Amino acid sequence: MSSTTTPTKRKRKRVTNPNPSPVPLQPEEPDLVSQLPDCILHTILSLLPIKDSGRTSVLSSRWRHLWEDAPLRLQVPIDQYIASSIFDSQSHQGPIEILSLSRSTAPALDRFVQSAVQRGIRELTILYSNQLAFTYELPRFLLSCNSLCQLSLVGCQFPKTVLLPSIFPNLTELNLDTVPVHNDTVQTLLSKCGSLETLRLIASRGSPLISISSPRLRKLVFDWGCTYFNVKLVAELIIKDAPNLESLMLGECETRYCNVKVLDAPKLQLLGFLCVAFKVLQLGGTLLQQQPASVIQVNAMPCRMTMLSSVKTLAIKMEHSYDKTILDLLKCFPCLENLYILKYRVSRYKNYLGKDIWDEHGFLSFLDHVKTVTVKGFYGNRSDVELVRYLVVHGKVLRKTTLLCYKALCEKFVEAKRRQFCIEMRASSDLELVFLRDSKSNVHFSTWNELISSEKAR
Fold first, then answer.
1. What CATH number corresponds to the domain at position 374?
2. What Rg value do the Cα atoms of the chain yield, rounded?
3. What range(s) does the F-box domain occupy (predicted)?
4. Higher-confidence residue: 163 or 258?
C-alpha cells in the first residue's frame, strides 16, 4: 500500500521594492502675506494689540524684525510698568502714533513723553489725576512738537510762562478735562495754535470769564462743571469772533448758571444744550433774559442775526413741563431741521401747552423745516401727548419722531399713545414714529455722545 503525502502550502513572501517611487506631494500654497512689502506689514502690525503684534516676531525670519519698526497705536491707557517695558527695553524702535498714559509719576511721564515726541507722536492722552491739587505740568518740549495732531489732558496744567511764538504747530484737536484754565490761557492757545479746530473744556476751574476769538475754530465744547462741583458762581462764555464755528455744545446746566453770549458765529449749525431756565442768553442780535417771574424777555439789538438762520440742530433741556419759554426760544431758529428735547423731571402741575397757545406764538412757521424730533424722558402725560400730536398733525416735512421712554414699554401703551397723537391725520406721509425704551438714566444725554453720533450718521 503506497502512502500519499499532501503537499504543504508555502507562505508566499511579499516582495517589496527596495527603491519605491516617492508619492507626489501636494504643493504648499505660497505665503502671500509675507510677500507684502514692509510698509504694508507695518500697517497691519500697528492695527493689532501690542501683545499679538510682538508675537509675530517668532513666526519666521521674515517677521523677526518687522515689529521693531512697526508704528505703535496704544489707544488703551497703559500704566508706568507697561510703558517702561516698551520704552526702556529698546526692543521697539519704530514710530509711536497713538499713546495713552495713566497712573505714572511725573518723572516717568517726562521720560515717556520725550520718547514719544522723538518718535513722531500724533495722538497723545495723559490721564494724571482727577484732583486739581495734584496736577502734572507739561514739559516745555511738548509745546513745540510738530507731529502732534490731537492732545487730551486730564489733571494736567500748562507751563506758567510760554515765550514761544507758536505752540503745537499742527495740533487740530485739544481736550482739557479737570485742567485749570483761565481766560489768558485760552487766548494763548487760540492765538498760538494756528491749526486748532476742536476745543473741549470739561469740568475745569479757572476764571469766571472765557472769551473765544478764533478764525479757524470749528467745534467748541464747554462744560464748566457747575453741577459736579456745586458752584454757584455765575460764569460767562462769550463767542466774540468765530467765523468758522459750526458746533457749540454746552453742558446741560451751563446756561442756567452761566451767561452765554454768541456774538458772531455766522456758520453755527449745531447748538445745545440750552437749558430753558437760563439766566442770560444772547444769540446774534437777540438777547434773551429770564425774569424772576419766569417770563422771558426778548430784546432785539442792532446786530447781525444771520447766525440764527444757520442753526440746523438744536438741543434743549427742560426741568419741568413745557411752558411758553420753549416757544419763544424756538422762534429764534427759523431754519431748524433737527430738535432734541431732554426732560429732566415730570411736572406735577396740570398746566400744559395747548394748541391755541402754540398758534399764538407762531409755532407753525417753526415746523416748515423740522425733519427729526427726539424727546428723551417721554412719560406720556398730557404735555408730552400735546407736543407730539401737534408735530404729527402740522409737520409737513417731518420724517422721524423718536420717543425715549423712561418706563417699561408695552403694546397697549404704544397703541394708546398713537391714537392720542392722531397718527391718521399726519401731515407728512413719510413720518416714522419710534418708541424706544431708555435704559439709561433720565438725567444726562451721555455727555452729548448720542447727539453727536447721530449727527455724524446723517
1. 3.80.10
2. 33
3. 30-76
4. 258
In a domain, 298, yes or no: no
Number of domains composing the chain: 1
Reduced to 3 states, what is the DSSP secondary structure of residue 414?
helix
Mean pLDDT score across all residues of the chain: 76
- Residue among 307, 195, 186 at smallest CA distance from 243: 307
**Mean pLDDT, residues 288-313:** 59
User: At 193, is the pLDDT very low, low, confident or very high (cuts 50, 70, 90)?
Assistant: very high
Whether 202 is in a domain gets the answer no
Q: Name the DSSP letter for residue 119.
A: T
401 occurs within a structural domain: yes
Please check the confidence at residue 187 and state whether its pLDDT lies above 50. Answer: yes
> Which of the four pLDDT bands, split at 50, 70 and 90, describes residue 233?
low
Cβ-based neighbour number of residue 107 at 10 Å: 8
Please, what is the angle between helix 382-394 and helix 411-420, to 10°?
A: 60
CA terminus-to-terminus distance, the chain:
115
**In the numeric block, which cell numbers belong to residue 419?**
391714537
Please give the Cα distance from 384 to 405 (Å, whole number): 11
Note down the domain range covering 352: 312-458
Rounded Cα distance between 399 and 234, Å, is 39
Residue 103, SS3? coil
Q: Is residue 370 domain-resident?
A: yes
Q: For residues 333 and 313, give the distance between their C-alpha atoms in angstroms, rounded to a whole number.
A: 9
